[in-house]
Amino acid sequence: MRVLLIQPPYDLGHDDERQAVPPLGLAYIAAVLERQGYEVRVIDCVAEDFERLDPQPEGRRRHGLADTALTARVTDFNPDLVGVSCLFSAQAAAAHHVCAIVKEATPRARIVMGGAHPSAAPARVCEDPNVDAVCLGEGEYTMLRLADHLARGTFPPPEPAGLAYRHDARTHIHPAETRIEELDSLPLPARHLLPMDAYLAARAPHGGHVRRHPCTNLITSRGCPARCSFCSIHTVWGRKFRCHSAERVLAELEHLVQTYGVREVQFEDDNLTLDKPRIRKICEGMIDRGLDLLWTTPNGAAIWALDEPLIALMRRAGCHHITLAVESGSPRVLKEIIRKPLNLDKVAPIVRACRQVGMGVSVFFVVGFPGETREEIARTFDFAMELDVDQACFFTATPLPGTDLYRQCVAMGALTEPVDFSRLRVGQPLFDTADWTADELAEMTRQAQERFYRQAAWRHPVRFFNAGMARLLREPRGTLGLIARTFLPGGSGHRAAAVKEPV
After folding, report:
1. N or C: which end of the chain has fewer CB within 10 A?
2. φ and ψ at 394, to 5 degrees?
3. Assign residue 498 a region: left if phi > 0, alpha if psi is -120 to 50, beta otherwise?
4. pLDDT (tens digit, 9 = 90+) per residue, 173-197?
5. 320 neighbors 361 (Cβ within 8 angstroms)
6. How are beta strands 61-63 and 53-55 bridged, if at all?
7. pTM of the entire predicted model
8. By three-state DSSP, how is residue 282 classified?
9. Which residues contact 446 (CB under 8 A, 6 or more apart)?
10. pLDDT at 200 > cutoff 70
11. DSSP 414
């Protein structure tokens, strides 16, 4: 049995930055399959042709390996089972395109799509005749069971938990019955199957706040107990928080240093600091072992899980930049619409604590929910301006499948099914409300983003210049456009840059 795992090319908006980060979900699946004796190969279409940008409709660009090159790679390996990742709904078209390429190249192979999008919209994904099954939620042991059954010539599998598939002209959806409780039982991600040299050479990590290279990413926990209305990650990881032990995390960090010469890491956890004793042990272990690693949290850290002593310890352990997910400057929106358990009074003190120890700070905000007023949106923008942070990212509420926001938008007629998933991008408002239109929301957000950049340049000119030069080197075209819109006369009349989606 040969198993091929594919990270598809990535569809970028007209101003989106290119990124090249190891697909750790595929690497975990590959490691479990390899441990059981399967021959596994991974193709990361983005990293393996990082310079290629193929024009697409509406100003988008498809970033990564050309169709002919992918076909040749698939044909050469001749897999029996193929897993295709689709992390975001906006990337569904690229993922389905890869499935079509694979099906044409190897018609006998079974093709499975996995990730947040297919986990949230399995029936829609199963409509594609090139997709034989959808992996729902965590993929490691679901893919292993499927491979075991295919090796015996059995499909559909008699143990279908965690799979959706078409059979007898019907779509069968079998949610996962359990999730992996002991994450330490998983082997280290199979980075040896990834083009690690390509990621390290591209120097295009998530978020961009990197001081030292080589830099790479890791994930040490899964699951989020919060029930934010716009978040779909629970469709993959579930609500229960589970984590690798501190010892396992330290072992993985040592592996990255010793094997790949890594000097900086990005913790991609949604809740890195939720278990305070664990994060303290991780930080103390990094210090005691002399790992000499810098690190950041580009996916955001829970503010309620931070305090001044922990922030000081994180800084001593190498954390130089932290991202805080605030979401709104309106208490009512946080409590009644987003349902995020956050007291806004804690935000400014946490930001000050980070600043006092020399830590950079970014903050995330989301505006434009049904029921949110123009005044509340303006309050969020003003709240962000009052914080002494390096970066404020203003996202617009995007109704992703599997979220309460999606169901609400369908019920109110703001979305009509079947939804064009390519439109579900955080910088593209989709619906009007009684208080504002989508175009007005886009304009308000654009003006706020530019206002923040101008304020940041005035407050901390040296810091702003250094960050801007780093971004310019990574993505010259988009950065020059942003500078023109923000600082040149008449620039604000241009369309705003799309805000980059989280990994």
Report:
1. N
2. -105, 105
3. beta
4. 999 988 999 999 999 999 999 999 9
5. no
6. antiparallel
7. 0.93
8. helix
9. 492, 495, 496
10. yes
11. S
